[in-house]
Amino acid sequence: MENFLILRLLDLFKPVFLKMGVEYKTMRRILQVKLTMDQRRKPTVFSQSMKKKDKPEKNEFFKSLWIYGFFGLMLIPFLFLKENYLFQVSILFSIFMFIIMTTLISDFSSVLLDLRDKSVLDTKPVKSKTVSMAKLLHVTIYMLYITLATTLIPLVVSVIFKGILFSGLLLASFALADIFIIAFTALLYLFILRYFDGEKLKDIINYVQIALSIGIMIGYQVVARSFELVNLDYQLEFAWWQLLLPPMWFAGLFDVLLGGSRSFGNVILTLFAVLGPVVSILVYVKMIPDFERNLQKLTAQTGKKKASSKWKVFRSMPFFISKEELPFFRFTRIMMKNERDFKLKVYPSLGFAVVVPFVFMFNSYSMMSFEEFAASRSYLTIYSVMLVIPMSVIMLAHSGSYKGSWIYQVAPVKSLGLINKAALKAFLFQLFLPLFLLVSIMFSFLFGLRILDDLIAVFLAALIYTLLCYLAGERELAFSLPFDAVKQSGDIKVFLLFLIIPLFVGLHFLALILPFGVAGYAILLFAVNWILWKRLR
Amino acid sequence: MSSEVLSITGLKKSYGSKEVLKGIDLKVDKGEIIGYIGPNGAGKSTTVKLMLGLEEGYSGRIEIFGEDIAGQGGSYKQRIGYIPETSEMYDSLTAQEYLTFVAELYGMDYDDADRKAEQLFDVFGLGDVYHSRISSFSKGMRQKTLIVSSFLHNPDLLFLDEPLTGLDANSVMVFKEILARFAAEGKTIFYSSHIMDVVEKISNRIVLLHGGHIVANGSFEELKTQSKEGSLESIFNQMTGFHEHEDRAAEFVSIVREG
After folding, report:
1. What is the DSSP string of A300-352?
2. If exposure means fewest CB atoms within 10 Å of the residue's CB, which of A218, B30, B82, B158 is most exposed?
3. Chain A neighbours among B 14-33 (CB < 8 Å)?
4. Each residue of A442-494: pLDDT tens digit?
5. Distances (CA, A) of B177 to B41, B147, B173, B174, B193
């Protein structure tokens, strides 16, 4: 097993851990094992072979880091705003904390809430403190990598243009923000774990994760806009609610240390910036035993769900769902509803998909009156709902219980392609359609019913887009791959698939210019749909 | 020192309002092989998990090696070996990596553990996959890996939950012989299983758990005279009040036939 560089760095802090009563050697070993496992992708069921030679190990995780570097580029413009630290830094940290927190929630919740450790580690003579510390460090190490990837370029830029002092403070603040985020997330989970149990708890965690992602997104908009509405020179007055927005803490810190501000509000914010992370991590470490105890609740299988019998409706829709597809359609719907990992990865983006069209829309709204706006073509922002499709389609091929997919091979299914076709339809029906209808209804209120034909065209385009996303992917069977294989191929592909959406918008724009263009566009899309879905086997 | 290895007094455990264990009393001596049986959901695994400290929040008293396990860290686990029912392992590791890791958690030296684990693997006829990933193993190979990992540190007390899953007949014979030898040497084995023939043969005492209570506790011979049944299977049926196996089977067959 590899002796990881990061572990050798950790050795420097050995005395600290020993002082805390952690068995350092054991903890280091656990971390080493965890990091080794992270490097390996589990082989999929169908490509499993006994004599598989272990290839030289390349951490898939590191390959995905570039995307964070890309996100980090977004930070750079904010380094060059006027010398108004309050504004500049709060925006900077809003973006940074958004990236880190959503990553933590979507990718590393599984580490915090892992139960597999229990039967392997807790049966051994190892202090629970040691195990918990290993867990915390495991997450922290990844946060460290992601933070570095995100901030490296901005930091280099800031050293060149803003000087060492600014950059040093920036780095320290990023670290503080990281600590705060990890502790805050863990404490949030703890809070939920305490008051609820079993299945309900997992659902609640799921919803909190979704709400949090949406909340951060909206919060970011609010922060950005609150400065935009008043003009840039405006010195934001201190108000109590600013203490609830962690990015503002760091803004205060910068204003005090570099801007020379000594106002009461800024000093309070500065105190929060320093004490917030420290206090939260101390509280978390104190609460760890409590956390672990409550974690046990996750295994408890409680609650009976009533089976619904809505399926009968679909038996009468052979045009959309053939008789052979029906079982898989039903199966996919149930899986999407119950598969927690799937919900975790996909549902937050569903939330975004509702918010994003409005964000785009208000960006254009700020430049005109309501009448102009209502008559405008801003409703085309509804295309951004389609952003949810690529990730969802990729995720459809994955499952936490992917090994169960042997059933496809064993059962006498006519064509395996059928399974995916049904799965795609189930996704469109179960997740996309309600979402699209919701946004459509809201848009119809804003723009009037005149946009009805446009909406139909958009939906038809979405159907085609779904199919394109599927064809561009691996075309693996639904729920047949483990989740950890997603990371490395997913990000890049999703990003490239996003680029197709503007093409649809462009075509729609063209159609709007021509007489009866939209109707023609819709008919064309319908025909393409017809052909493509027919041919999909 | 007394020969009592394990002592449970008045053990109760509930999940929410549901009481799973309703007062268990059990004493186990050194060198005994206890067959711990009971219907699904009777609380067998819960008992074992409580003894290993995997579950908390019980009333009653559990003493292992003469000491109350509540309040004394995890040091007693040093002398325990455990095969869990769900064969959970870090299976993206190779057998070598996993086994040495587990051994080190028990405080063994890496090189000693490595040498010992490889020898044990050889004995099971798995020498050539010692460096392969566990995820590529068959059920039986996984089970053998678990067996090796639970014996590697030479424990005095073993908790085995369905340890024979997936093993072929030859391996089962080897394993039964291993247990007998260890018991003769003074190791204590706590064996829970649903396979009655095996429990009947290897245990010197059988403990039957039903509805949160121990309903039978004695050697196979004692149970036989007590219930006047010939095999452990029928004793089990009788004690758990299950008589309708023929009706159930007939019903199953007829439903399948219906089409």
Report:
1. -----PPPP-TTHHHHT-TTTS-TTTHHHHHHHHHHHHH-HHHHHHHHHHHHH
2. A218
3. 15-16
4. 888 888 888 888 899 999 999 999 999 988 877 777 788 877 655 555 567 78
5. 29, 14, 6, 5, 17
Q: Flag whether residue B88 sits within 8 Å of chain A, measured between CB atoms.
A: yes
Residue of A nearest to B89 (CA): A120
Q: Does A366 touch chain B (CB under 8 A)?
A: no
Give the integer Cα–Cα distance in Å for B117 and B96.
7
Mention the CATH class of domain B4-86+155-258: alpha beta
Interface membership of A293 toward B (CB under 8 Å):
yes
Distance of alpha carbon A176 from alpha carbon A395, whole angstroms: 33
Q: Alpha-carbon distance B257 to B259, whole Å? A: 5
Q: Do A33 and B104 touch (CB under 8 A)?
A: no
User: Could you tell me the two tokens for A411?
Assistant: 């059962």
Name the burial class of residue A83, with classes exposed (0-12), middle (13-18) and buried (19+) by CB atoms within 10 angstroms of its CB: exposed
Q: Which pairs count as long-range contacts for A248-251, CB under 8 Å and 24+ apart, including other chains? A: A248/A86, A248/A90, A249/A273, A249/A276, A250/A89, A250/A90, A250/A93, A250/A173, A250/A176, A250/A177, A251/A85, A251/A86, A251/A87, A251/A88, A251/A89, A251/A90, A251/A93
Tokens at B56, concatenated = 């908390």
The pLDDT tens digits of the residues spanning A332-374 come to 888 888 787 787 778 777 877 787 787 777 766 666 677 777 7
Structural tokens at position A528:
């393409």
- Other CB atoms within 10 A of residue A384 CB: 21
Q: How far apart are CA A120 and CA A362, in angstroms?
A: 52
Beta strand pairing call for B33-37 and B205-210: parallel
Torsion of CA B217, B219, B225, B226, to 10 degrees: 0
Query: Rounded distance, CA A187 to CA B14, Å?
Result: 27
ipTM of the complex: 0.79
DSSP state, B157? E
Do residues A85 and A254 make contact, with C-beta atoms less than 8 angstroms apart? yes
Contact B74 A126 (CB under 8 A): yes
As a whole number of angstroms, the distance between CA B100 and CA B94 comes to 10
| Nearest chain A residue (CA) to B46 | A300
- For the whole model, what pTM was predicted? 0.73
Alpha-carbon distance B59 to A83, whole Å?
A: 64
Q: Do A43 and B102 touch (CB under 8 A)?
A: no
Euclidean distance between CA atoms B149 and A395, whole angstroms: 36
The residue in chain A having the minimum alpha-carbon distance to the alpha carbon of residue B87 is A119
DSSP state of A237: P
- Size of the A and B interface in Cβ pairs below 8 Å: 85
